[in-house]
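Objective 1.3, modelling of assemblies. Example input:
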Amino acid sequence: MRRIVVLGSTGSIGTQTLDVVRRHPDKLQVVGLAAGGGRLDLLAEQVREFGVAQVAVGSEGAAETPAAAKLVEAVESVRPRERFASLAEAFQSRGGKRVGFGPDAVVDLVQLPDVDVVVNALVGAAGLRASYETLRCGKVLALANKESLVVGGDLIMPLAAQVDAARTAAGLAPATGPAGALMPIDSEHGAIYQCLLGENPREVTRLWVTASGGPFRGRTRQQLQSITPAQALAHPTWNMGAKISIDSSTLMNKGLEVIEAHHLFAMPYDRISVVVQPQSAIHSMVEYADGSVKAHLGTTDMRIPIQFALSYPDRWDAPVGPLDFTKLGNLEFAPPDEETFRCLALARTAGSAGGTLPAVMNAANEVAVAAFLAEEGSYLGIAECVEAAMDAHVAGGGGGLQPVESIEQLLEVDAWAREEAKRHVR
Ligand SMILES: NC(=O)c1ccc[n+]([C@@H]2O[C@H](COP(=O)([O-])OP(=O)(O)OC[C@H]3O[C@@H](n4cnc5c(N)ncnc54)[C@H](OP(=O)(O)O)[C@@H]3O)[C@@H](O)[C@H]2O)c1
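Predicted structure (tokens):
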């Protein structure tokens, strides 16, 4: 039985993770849930269904709402199962409550003893501390929150290597393949992870990250000028949260994934290529020294990569029907249009420069996307805002471009970048 905490349980990835748990109750046990506070009724339902005794809500303000009182009632009605009693006791002994409010409560949740795996499905840089603390406590991190790696990959990957070594020493690692401390949930990275199994990393010549191209593939900048949030939220192949849907449409999501791939697979940027594959049937590919290419295909459903991140090194029964190749039709490939969708090029620039520039890029993107969704900024203004914040950092703002040293430093740079970006929202 793997005991899991799900951060972001009310979101797209969070609810699909819980669906995987529903299908494998003999293998997975939910012991903690966290969400932002926007959907407390759903969180309370999840608490009842899965009998969860420990909950965190990211927003401190949510504590005063009537829905919060109902949530507390739901959690208190759950009696910690005998075998998980130590979990609740440890939390209480640190002065915690079974329902915590505020960002620290989310981090407290990942530190609970008796938790094997933390699924981080928070959105944005808000997930950074949770990813870091999960690995610092020696637990397995199943990571959907790609922003953690974009911002803090330089800190997170060495920690993951330490946890891998500890898992190997404790006999918890599989006989072959990676020890599994950091399991990517992103479908592209889950695909690459699987294409690399059983291979010699020194023989890998290129990673091919596939992209759907988003809802505006083929459009010109002129045609993108008046795009509305509703149009940008309608993704052709994946049903996702609002922020990643906008990122997919601007190709910033692909940029974040290139940086994520660089950290996860220790691959230089000039050997990570993006190819548009509009059917989203090929989830990514790995090219080897002898010219062979391994591709990962599957039904377009996030429950498959989520489940693999939780079942590794095993494979469990599929959560959805398999791909029917007789109905698949054509598979198309095309280069991404980085001139129209400039966010991908900006992300490559930030990743290649390294240090604190990806943190600035990510924070500016979060500000610009939130402004666009609130109809306070334009669609094309997203890339302009990101570029302006990056330029200001390179010119010395926010302490200038620095090597990554600590979480505190990253949080400071992130805060500076958000203020800077607000000045460039158009
Ligand atoms: N959706 C996909 O198909 C997909 C695929 C690959 C990777 N990802 C990545 O997975 C992550 C989550 O994406 P998503 O699409 O699932 O997002 P989402 O649907 O917007 O869900 C985000 C979740 O995080 C919670 N949350 C937000 N801010 C929080 C905070 N400060 N503290 C605690 N909880 C907070 C939300 O709670 P409330 O809304 O209830 O307040 C919600 O449960 C992102 O990094 C995304 O890039 C998503």
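The first strand starts at residue 2 and ends at 7.
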